[in-house]
Amino acid sequence: MGWLLCYLVTLLVSHILSLCTCQDKIVPGQYIGGNHTLVSSLGTFSLGFFNPNENSTKYFLGMRFNKFPNTALVWVANRESPLDSPDFFMLSSDGNLVVLDQTRKLVWSTNASVSASAMNHTTGLLEDTGNLVLRFEEVTLWESFDPCDTMLPGIKISLNKKTGQQRRLTSWAALDDPQPGKFTFGIDPKVPVQAFIWKETTPYYRSSVYIGKDTAHFQNPGGTAFFLSYNFDVDDVYLAYSVSDSSVKLRVWLDPTGQIKQQLWQNSSKTWLELGNSRPVDNCDFYAHCGPNSACRRGEPLSSPCKCLTGFSAKFPNQWAVGNWSSGCVREKVLTCGNGIKSYFSKLERVKLPDHFVLLNNRSMSECESECQQNCSCTAYNYVDATDGSNIGTCLAWFGELLDLEENKTIFANDIYIRVHGSELDSSENIKLEWGKRIQIIEGIAQGMLYIHKYSRLKIIHRDLKASNVLLDEKMKPRISDFGMAKIFEKNQTEANTNSGYMSPEYAKYGHFFEKSDVFSFGVLLLEIISGKRNAAFYRFEHPLTLAGWAWKLWKEGRGMKVIDAYVRKECPFDEALRCMHVAFLCVQEDPIDRPTMATVIHMLGHETTSFPPPKEPAFLAHSNSSVVGSSPSSSTFSNNALTISIPEGR
Length: 651
Ligand SMILES: *[C@@H]1O[C@H](CO)[C@@H](O)[C@H](O)[C@H]1NC(C)=O
Ligand SMILES: *[C@@H]1O[C@H](CO)[C@@H](O)[C@H](O)[C@H]1NC(C)=O
Ligand SMILES: *[C@@H]1O[C@H](CO)[C@@H](O)[C@H](O)[C@H]1NC(C)=O
Ligand SMILES: *[C@@H]1O[C@H](CO)[C@@H](O)[C@H](O)[C@H]1NC(C)=O
Ligand SMILES: *[C@@H]1O[C@H](CO)[C@@H](O)[C@H](O)[C@H]1NC(C)=O
Ligand SMILES: *[C@@H]1O[C@H](CO)[C@@H](O)[C@H](O)[C@H]1NC(C)=O
Ligand SMILES: *[C@@H]1O[C@H](CO)[C@@H](O)[C@H](O)[C@H]1NC(C)=O
Ligand SMILES: *[C@@H]1O[C@H](CO)[C@@H](O)[C@H](O)[C@H]1NC(C)=O
Ligand SMILES: *[C@@H]1O[C@H](CO)[C@@H](O)[C@H](O)[C@H]1NC(C)=O
Known about the structure:
Helix content: 10-25%
CATH superfamily of the largest domain: Transferase(Phosphotransferase) domain 1
Mean pLDDT: 83
Oligomer: single chain
Low-confidence stretches: 1-15, 482-493, 495-499, 625-651
Shape: elongated
Number of strands: 38
Strand order of the largest sheet: 1-3-8-9-10
Largest sheet: 5 strands, mixed
Bound molecules: 2-acetamido-2-deoxy-beta-D-glucopyranose
CATH topology of the largest domain: Transferase(Phosphotransferase), domain 1
Number of helices: 12
C-alpha cells in the first residue's frame, strides 16, 4: 500500500480501498482497475480501462457499448494523459472521480466543486444512457454527457446565448489516439442558428440554417428511426439526437478526419452501419468551396459544381475555368442604389442559405423586404415565418458577400432574395415604357446633362453616358448615375463598354473628350429610347449597320416611322417622334462642331419648328473591325477620377 501513502499526501484519501464489486456504481473506498468494469443497470454500457483500438498499447478510462465489445469508445476520461497500464479509477477524498497512474499520480479529475459536507459521500453512477454522473444525494455535481467525440441520444451540442458556454465535440487525433484532434463540431457563436465543423479555428463545414425549433426524422432501411432535433429559440440553444425506441443504438461522431458520421448498430451483421448523411462528403460541403457570390451544386464531380449567382461573373475567369473557384464571383455591374432608386431582387429557391447574416427578429415579410431595400449595404434577405403561425417571423439579412451557398437543397432548404441591380434604363423591367414616359426620360436626361455642362459648380463632362448609367426612381424620373463608375470595372469590361457604341469618334480615335462628346452619347441614347433597340444588340447579332446606321438608312428612305419602337408606334405623336429622331441624328454627327449643345438640344426637343439644320450622315454608320481603337483612350485631358460625386438634378 505504498502508493496509498503517496496519494494521501495529495488527495487525503482516508479509506482502505477495495476492488469494486458493484455493478453500476462506485462509492468511496472502492476502485476500478485492471480489466474490471462498471456496467450500467441494463447492461448497455461499460466503463473501464481500455485500449482505443487493437493497435494501441495505451490505456484510457473509457466507456463503450458493453454488448458490442471491441467497438469504439464513446467517451474517454483521460484523453490527454494516456496510461501505460490499467490503473486506478476511484473517488478521491475531495469527492471527485479521479484517475491515477501507476505511481499514484493524479492524471484526471472531474474537478467539480464539492462542499465539505459532501466530500465523503459522493458516488459515481454509470447510467444506462451512457452518462457517468457524480452525485451527492440527488444532486448531480458533474456528468460525462459533456461530450468529447461522440453524441449519444440525450447528448446536446449546445451554446448558452447568455454565458457563451459551449458544448462541442472534439475529434480524436487518430483512430488509435483519443488525444484532442484538429476538428471540433459545435454551434456558431456568431449567429446561434447553425452548426460548424472547424478545423482548428477555420470553418471546415457549415450546417443548414435552423430557425426556431424543429425535429427532422430519419428512417433507416430496417425501418427504425432516429431524430435530429434543435431548439434555437431558447437561451441554451442545442442540437440533439434521439431514437424511436431504446433498442435502436445510435452513435454520432466526429472522426479524426473531420467527418461527422451517424451510425446505427446492426444486430444481424454485428457492425455499425454508417448512414448516408455523413458530412462533409460532397465538394459543396466544404466551407465556401465556390468562393463568394456563387452557388454550389451537389453531385457534380465531372462538370463544375460552382456557378456564379445571377448578375455576377467569375472574378478570375482563367482560374475559374480550371476549377480554382476560391476567388468566387464579382458583380458584373456596379450596384446602383440609393437616392430613391428602386432595387430589384432575384429570388433563388431551395438553397442552403449563405453565411454571415444578421438576424432581425419580430419582422413581417414586408418589413424585412423594405429594410433590405432601403439599406444599400444589404445584399440579400430571407424571411422565415414564425412557428406560431403569426405573420411576425424572422428576417435574415446579408450585408456583404454571399458565402457558402448551396443550391437545390431537398432538406432544410430556404429561399433567398438577392439584390441584383437598380432600375436602370436598360434593365429588362423598363423595356416596355409608354411613349409619354420615354419623352419624360429624354427630357430629364437632357436637363441633367445641361446642368452638369453649364450650371454645376464644377463644369463636368460625364464621359460615360449610356442606358445602364441612367437610373430611374419609382416615378420614372431619370437620375444620371455617378461619375467614375466605369473606372471600377475591370479593364476588359471597360473596353467592352467603350465598344458598345456610345463613344464619339474623336474619343474613339484620339482620346479627345469634351462636352460635344457627351452630346454624341446622348444622341445614341436617344435613338435607343425611341427605337427600343439596344445599340449593343446590333453588335451581338453581327449586324453590319450600327443602330445609327440602321436608323439613318430608314430615315433617308422616308421610312423614319419604322425606327420607332413598335410597342409605342401607334400611340406616339409622329411629329414629336420624328423631331426626337432629327435631334438624335444631329447629335451623332461626325464633326463635333456640327453637333448642337445640350442647351440647343433642349430647345429643339421642346419646340415645334421645322428650322432645324438637316443632319449629316452619322459617324459609325457601319461596323468595321478597326472602327474602335484597341487601347483605352488616355484620360489625361479630362481627368475626373476624383469626381465621384452624384449628379445633382437638372431642375
Ligand atoms: C482479467 O484479468 C485477469 C488477470 O489479469 C484474468 O485472469 C481474467 O481472465 C481477466 N478477465 C477477463 C474477463 O478478461
Ligand atoms: C492495426 O494495424 C494494422 C497494421 O498496420 C492495420 O492493418 C489495421 O488496420 C490496424 N487496425 C486498426 C483498427 O487501426
Ligand atoms: C481539472 O483541473 C486541472 C487543474 O486545473 C486541469 O489541469 C484539468 O484539465 C481539469 N480536468 C478536467 C477533466 O477538467
Ligand atoms: C471523510 O471521512 C474521514 C474518515 O471517515 C474523515 O476523517 C474525514 O474528516 C472526512 N472528510 C470530510 C471532509 O468530511
Ligand atoms: C438487437 O438485439 C438485442 C438483443 O440481442 C435486442 O434486445 C434488440 O431489441 C435488438 N435490436 C434491434 C434493433 O433489433
Ligand atoms: C486560385 O486562384 C487564386 C486567385 O487567382 C490564386 O491566388 C491561387 O493561388 C489559386 N490556387 C491554385 C491552387 O491555383
Ligand atoms: C418579439 O415579440 C415578442 C412578442 O411581442 C416579444 O415577447 C419578444 O421579446 C420579441 N423579441 C425580440 C427579440 O424583440
Ligand atoms: C445598413 O445596415 C448596416 C448593418 O446593419 C448598418 O450598419 C447601417 O447603418 C445601415 N445603413 C443605413 C443607411 O441604414
Ligand atoms: C434539383 O434536385 C432535384 C431532385 O434531386 C433534381 O431532380 C433536379 O434536377 C435538380 N435541379 C437542378 C437544377 O439541379
